[in-house]
Structure formats: structure tokens, C-alpha cells
Write the C-alpha cells for this entry.
Amino acid sequence: MKSLQELNSLALRTRRLLGEDSYSPIDIFALVNGWKEKKITIVRYPFSNRISGMCTCINNDFIIGINSKSSYGRQRFTLAHELYHILYERNTDRVICDMSMVDTKSDSEKEADWFASYLLMPYDALLAYDEKAEEWNLERVIEAEQFFQISHMAMVFRLKQDGKITADEASVFQSCSVSRKAASLGFGKELYIPLPVEKQYFTTGEYIRKVEQLSEKDLISNGKREELLLDAFRADIVYNLDEEEGFHLND
């Protein structure tokens, strides 16, 4: 199994490939969707509660599935986790990742978890943030996870493993009503709740680009384009839904 130092180094390397520094919070979905060289498609889909995500490779294109019934913070972590499988492991024919406890996971899954933690919140980034913290109380934990946009459970686990909080403190933090506490501190609840049911089916990335490129080159009919986009749960593109409000200049 790779050491934590190796996994942190891989996470930093990945940040550099994505054009990011070693300290700032990152928009992991936007970065992966825009990483054209890797040909990654992200599918948000409501899997069973035991599955956090999956990945597979088809003709050198990668597909990452994210359980859209999990919280947004968990979805960000799952995407970072799946990136480890497709970037740094050889066997990516099909990998399904479940919600099992850390102690029962394979070495591969443990490595992917640590990589995800370091990708979203590198060791030095947390260390720099920690210098500003007098103590890691619940309020400070929530402020940090909001800053790095990492799930509450992942944040608490990381602080415990890094020796910044005790096991007893971790237990208390994990048992709290975190979304309610975050709201009382002035934050939104988006990090802690799943997407609305009507938005739990959604595809972004390489698949959408390929369909549009085929259409632009007249290699498929408009009807086929619409069929392919609807198969990818993108009725918003087909029917021009949720268009941004335009700005009209007076003559």
C-alpha cells in the first residue's frame, strides 16, 4: 500500500495537471469536466445507498458514476476518489466503490480515499489553515469543511487521523446535526444534502462534447443528437431549458 506521503504527492501532482495550486479550494467537478485530454464523462445517477460511485474505461474514454443521492460534499469526495482509480491504477475495466467502513476496505479503496482527501485538502493546505485555529471545536470544523468544500465525515476523519482532534471529539462531531449547525453559523446546507430528485440524473464532460461534435460535422442527424442527449439525461440541452437571462441593450 502506498504511504500517505506518496498519496499526498500524487494529489499535488494532479492539482498541477489541473492547473491548480497546492493550497486553494478547488471546483473538482468543473476541473474534471474541462479536462479534455483525459476524456472523462461524469454521470450523476441515484445508485443504491451502498454504492458511492464507480468508474470504467471504454475505448480509452473514462466514465465516472456518482451517486446523486449522496450529499454534495460526498459527491465531490467520490469524484476525487474515482480519479485515483482511473489515473493511478492499471485495472480500471470496472471499479465499483461502496460505502463500507474504512477498516473493511481494500488497500486500493483506502488509497483512493486518502488521495481524495489530499486532492481536496492537501496536507500543507490544512496545516496552513490549522495555524489560524486556536482549537478544533465544532464551529471551526464546519468553517474548514465549508472553506475546502469537503464532507463533514471526511473532514472529521482527516482531523482525527492527523492527530488534530481526539477519538472522543471525533465521535461528538460526527453525531451532531451538521446541516443545522452550519445554517446557524450563516452557511448554506448545500454541502450536506443531496440534489433534488429532479436533478439526480445528469451527464457532463466528454460524452456531451462528442455528441455535439458529431452533430456539428453532420455525422449524425438532429434527431439522433437529441436521442443521444436525452439518453444522457440532458433534456435541458435538447429543449433549451434553464437558459440564462439575457441582457438587452437599448438602441
